[in-house]
Structure formats: structure tokens, C-alpha cells
Target: AAA family ATPase
Amino acid sequence: MVKHPLINKVVENVEQVVVGKRKEVTLSLIAMLSGGHVLLEDVPGVGKTMMVRAIAKSIGANFKRIQFTPDLLPSDVTGVSVYDQKTMEFKFRPGPIMANVVLADEINRTSPKTQAALLEALEEASVTTDGETRQLEKPFFVMATQNPIEYGGTYPLPEAQLDRFLFKFKIGYPSHQEEMEVLNRVEKQHPIEKIEAVLSLEELLIMQKEVTEIYVDESIKSYIISIVNETRNHNSVYLGASPRGSIALMKAAQSLAFIQGREYVIPDDIKFLAPYALGHRIILNSDSKFANVSTSVVVSEILQRVKIPVRKEAVR
Model:
């Protein structure tokens, strides 16, 4: 799947820490190349924190972790101005959001007010404190996590917040063989301590620019729009994906084409990425929820229904 040599080095580096999760690591790097962010919804202990730490170390990035709790304040995320008695001036102390790679752990455990503090950062790569807007470092990548099992004392992310994440996916439990490999690796020393950077931030920024040059044909754009439009008209859906979903899917497809060594997007890129880019942007109606219909099933039905574009030269 990964043919770009530098990105493949990062994937292999992360795989020293996270066993058997190449697809999930690749999706995270696709989001990073696209300038987007990832929401991981999974049970504790499956390697979410280790994966984002390994990615940060692999690109030599400044990494911060925010543990979201009910009493966390917006200023604990964005930063706060503190009065300096020596200079008799207020000095800004940056919060943990001002890093290259940020792990927002258990984001649904904090209040909506604190969750909203992330909105500007996720969308505009900036934070506003004390009336002053401060730009965040580039590259800027957030991986948020939430536990799907425990709902007591949690605040579900609103649609506007979910829409800011490029992808949402799960890591899942390892197989018997993969878990045995995990035990063998951590028996004496955790592998996270040994990995080193294989990609610089400057190289990553250059690649983010190169991704935007990947060609997207008008037929592919029309294919994306048709898929997104079907989410708005599906009989199981109460609220479909927004135009931001179309943009997210196109940008992610450009990144996927880039890491596969192509200069153009193909329909298979869209079909592979659609469940991760659109599933969390869809709200099912009450009947579908009662029938235990999942958004992944809805997206799968839509992909089967929408006609795949074919190059006219190939039609005989």
C-alpha cells in the first residue's frame, strides 16, 4: 500500500512499537499529510497512545498529551496569561495544544466548553486567548481518543466537532500471534524508547505541499459529490455529510495517491477512504438506530449504488 520511501520508513518505524496495525498507521499518516486530524474510538489498552507517540518520535515532532477530565478548563488547553511581577506585564504561557503532534486523550470526558476550545485549533490551526489569535506550529496534527464503552460522566462530541476530524476509526484487539509479539518486545524494554526520527518536520511540510499537486479529475470530483449527496438522501440517514466531508475525502485521496507513488487519484482511493472519512459525519434516524444499522453499512450500500467513473478512452 505504501510505496513512497520516506513514508514507508515512518510506517516501519512505528511498527516497531505497534504490532499488526499497518492500515491504521497508514491512515494516520494520510490524515497528517492532508493537514487533517484523527478520532480513535476504542477500548483502553489497545495501543492508541503508543501509536501517536511513535508517529511523533518518527518525525522528530514536539509531542504533547492532554488528559481530558470533567474539570479541565479551556485555558488548560490553549494556554493562559500570567502576571510577571518583575516586568509588571502579562506573559503568555502556551498550553499543550501548541505542539506539532497532540494526543487529546478521552476527549469526551471534558465539558462542551473545553471541547469547543479545540474547534479553532482543529479547523484553523490557531488559538485565541485574551483577544489575541496565535498561530500554531506547522505541521499540526491532533489524534483524539474516546472510550465507546463507558458513557457515564461523558459529553458526546457534537456534530460540529466530529466534522473537524478527517478520519474516525478503531484500532481493535491484536490476534494471538500479534499479542505474543507484543509481549516479546516489551519483555525487557519498551520499543518506544529505542525508535528514532526517520523523517524531519521540514521534509513532512514539503510532502504536504506536494500532496496538493496530486491531480484530481473532474469525474473523480463528481464521484465524490455523488457519494456525499447519497448520504443526504439515504432512507436510513437523518443528517448526511456536509461539503466539508467532500473536501476531506478529496484531500485524503490525494494523500493516498501520493504515498502509493501516483500523480493522480483513482476511484479505488475514494472507495477505500470513504468509510473512514464519511462514517462519523452521518447521523442515522431513530428507526435505523433501533434496528442497529451502522454508518459503515450505510456507506457500503452507497458505494455499491453510486456508479464508478470510467475513462472514456477505455470504453469500446
